[in-house]
Design brief:
CATH class of the largest domain: Mainly Alpha
Largest sheet: none
Number of helices: 7
Number of domains: 3
Number of strands: 0
Shape: globular
Structural class: mainly alpha
CATH superfamily of the largest domain: AhpD-like
Helix content: 55-70%
Radius of gyration: 20 Å
Amino acid sequence: MDDAPMNDAPMNDAQRVRQGMTVRREVLGDEHVDRAVAATTPFTEPFQDFITRYAWGDIWSRPGLSRAERSLVTLSVLAAMQHEHELAMHVKAALRNGLTPEQIREVLLQVAVYAGVPVANRAFAIAQRALAEAQAEDDARLHSCLRPQRRELGSCPLTTHVRPTCERLYLCRSPTRYR
């Protein structure tokens, strides 16, 4: 149920930073975190340290809620508070944490009841765009691993025709996309 480490011993700040960076990368993705780290300035460094240690190293690492459950809460709050950039980022993070687009939709419907239809209307537009971007990113990663290779008819376990194939195709969760 819980993605957090089950160690009850308190962490020191160095451990919290390491844990926070690990969780931050797992939830938001290396690309996003690398951009944030690269953009860090002396002015923003204390804030980056703060969110890595406390948001990611402490709160997101706590036992009690799974990462998917934390994503549900985070999406609700961000949508209700109209934090558009953060909402888009956390829609993609929610997918990494195992939520489905249908679950994200249900969260936003719940937000409509408690935070208002105009707020949810905007959140739906942001989420739809973020979901489309996430799908495009996944498709690009999948396509980047494909190399045109000539195979003998029947040599590909997925099809009986000559197609671009990839050794990593078996790792794809949706190999039928390429049939």
